[in-house]
From TrEMBL:
Belongs to the endonuclease V family. It comes from Ferroglobus placidus (strain DSM 10642 / AEDII12DO). Its EC number is 3.1.21.7. One of its GO terms (cellular component) is cytoplasm. This is Endonuclease V. It catalyses: Endonucleolytic cleavage at apurinic or apyrimidinic sites to products with a 5'-phosphate. GO terms for molecular function: deoxyribonuclease V activity; magnesium ion binding; RNA endonuclease activity producing 5'-phosphomonoesters, hydrolytic mechanism; single-stranded RNA binding. Mg(2+) binds at residues 33, 103. Keywords: Cytoplasm, DNA damage, DNA repair, Endonuclease, Hydrolase, Magnesium, Metal-binding, Nuclease.
Length: 222
DNA sequence: GCGACAG
DNA sequence: ATCTTGTCGC
């Protein structure tokens, strides 16, 4: 496992925490999410990427990736389980001036290398990590709807943000080529009547549709 | 040593 | 993440 830790540290060194382009220049956002299932004793992952215009969030394109997974779920090592698949799905829809929003941590990670960081570094494109539960860092609980509190290790590595009065906070951190402030700003702009960013929700639905789709094709063809 | 611990 | 129905609350 030391080898994997070293790889994460190496990737973390390539991270840039400055905006590759200004907020006003963002033309698209792409949400990525995954669904898992087993076929016999083997496990598979379906990654879905949904590209939307920004800031109006109109559906533009989508891409999926389906593959077998061999790595187990181990906190802080998520990138080794679903990273390659996520990258492949995003690659299919990526355009200029696009920010990637991933369902996983960015630099709010023990070695500053969460899933969003992996995707952002692999594609050399701005990326943001969004999670429903905290993984790493110190922060205060945002109490009011729309309120955010910084997440820290030594420096600011992200924000805990409360989407609505009844919602628990979501955790936002830069993946690559974006600042914590801009990452939060983009995420807030993609949240409407729901807790999570619209692109992530759409990707979630699509991953599950593809999964069910695949499973039903299985028992009618072998 | 013990607890925490994305999806 | 996945397995699963109804149910309480804003």
């Amino acid at each position: 496992m030391n080898k994997l830790v070293e790889l994460q540290k190496k990737i973390a060194e390539e991270v840039v925490l400055e905006d590759a382009f200004n907020y006003e220049e963002i033309k698209y956002v792409v949400g990525v999410d995954q669904a898992f299932f087993k076929k016999g004793d083997k496990e598979f992952v379906v990654s879905a990427a949904v590209l939307m215009s920004f800031p109006d969030l109109r559906f533009i394109d989508s891409g999926v990736d389906l593959r077998k997974v061999d790595f187990p779920y181990i906190p802080t090592f998520l990138m080794f389980r679903e990273g390659d698949s996520a990258v492949e799905a995003v690659k299919k829809v990526l355009r200029e001036k696009t920010v990637i929003i991933v369902d996983g941590s960015g630099i709010a990670h023990p070695r500053k290398c969460g899933l969003a960081t992996f995707v952002g570094v692999a594609l050399r494109n701005p990326s943001i990590g969004v999670t429903k539960r905290p993984l790493y860092g110190k922060f205060e609980e945002p109490k009011r709807s729309g309120e955010s509190k910084g997440i820290f290790n030594d420096e600011l590595i992200g924000y805990a943000y409360k989407p609505c009065a009844r919602c628990n906070p979501i955790y936002v951190s830069p993946g690559n080529m974006i600042s914590p402030e801009t990452a939060l700003r983009v995420v807030v702009a993609t949240i409407r009547n729901y807790k999570l960013p619209i692109p992530i929700r759409e990707a979630h639905k699509m991953a599950n549709r593809e999964k069910l789709n695949y499973l039903s094709d299985l028992d009618s063809s072998g």
